[in-house]
């Protein structure tokens, strides 16, 4: 079982801090799991312009391949200017629309205000619906008040919601396995 923890930003550390308890929980509670931490700031990203995936640089090819091979995803994103970062949208534009079909996705977001959680509903979920992902219903949103001055996640309620989200994610992984006969092999499509 190959799980991608996708940190969908080029800057900051709060999304990384939010992914950390999820990674710990998954490692402690699932045997035979491979966790692939994808942090976009460690990649030489190219602007997606419609060319075939094999024409991008090695980092982009590796990123596309890692995402398309995964069995499930936990996506962490900040909210910038009332939306998801362009780098994250660029990644979605790079992968096949068939790649994430019937695969589970959990969402984590960090924003500057209480209202920024609406970006999940109005921007991120529609993109994931387009991919026909199995989106877990309990995303986790945090704001600056949940972190210390040095950007450590300190809010126990948020930590508990991350664990609960991880538990539901595992159930969705099981459901995704049951639906695997309905997935399309993107190499043949």
UniProtKB/TrEMBL annotation:
**Keywords (A to Z) from UniProt:** Flavoprotein, FMN, Oxidoreductase
Q: Which residues form the NADPH-dependent FMN reductase-like domain?
A: 1-143
One Pfam family linked to the record: FMN_red
What InterPro entries does this protein map onto? Flavoprotein-like_sf, FMN_Rdtase-like_dom, NAD(P)H-dep_FMN_reductase
Q: GO MF terms on file? A: oxidoreductase activity
Gene3D superfamilies with a match to the protein in the record: 3.40.50.360
Coiled-coil annotation reads: none
State whether keyword rRNA processing applies: no
So where does this one cross the membrane? none
| Source organism superkingdom | Bacteria
Q: Which PANTHER family match?
A: FMN REDUCTASE (NADPH) (PTHR43408:SF2)
* Name of the protein described by the UniProt record: NADH-dependent FMN reductase
């Amino acid at each position: 079982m190959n799980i991608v923890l996708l940190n969908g930003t080029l800057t900051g550390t709060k999304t990384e801090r939010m992914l950390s308890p999820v990674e710990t929980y998954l490692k402690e509670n699932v045997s035979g799991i491979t966790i692939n931490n994808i942090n976009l700031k460690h990649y030489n990203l190219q602007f997606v312009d419609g060319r075939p995936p094999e024409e991008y640089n090695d980092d982009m090819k590796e990123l596309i391949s890692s995402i398309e091979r995964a069995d499930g995803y936990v996506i962490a994103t900040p909210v910038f200017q009332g939306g998801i970062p362009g780098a994250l949208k660029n990644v979605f534009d790079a992968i096949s629309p068939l790649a994430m079909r019937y695969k589970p996705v959990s969402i984590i977001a960090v924003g500057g205000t209480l209202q920024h959680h609406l970006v999940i509903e109005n921007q991120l979920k529609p993109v994931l619906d387009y991919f026909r992902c199995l989106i877990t219903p309990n995303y986790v949103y945090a704001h600056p008040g949940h972190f210390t001055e040095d950007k450590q996640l300190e809010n126990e309620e948020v930590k508990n919601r991350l664990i609960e989200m991880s538990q539901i994610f595992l159930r969705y992984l099981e459901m995704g396995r049951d639906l695997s006969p309905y997935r399309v092999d993107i190499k043949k499509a």
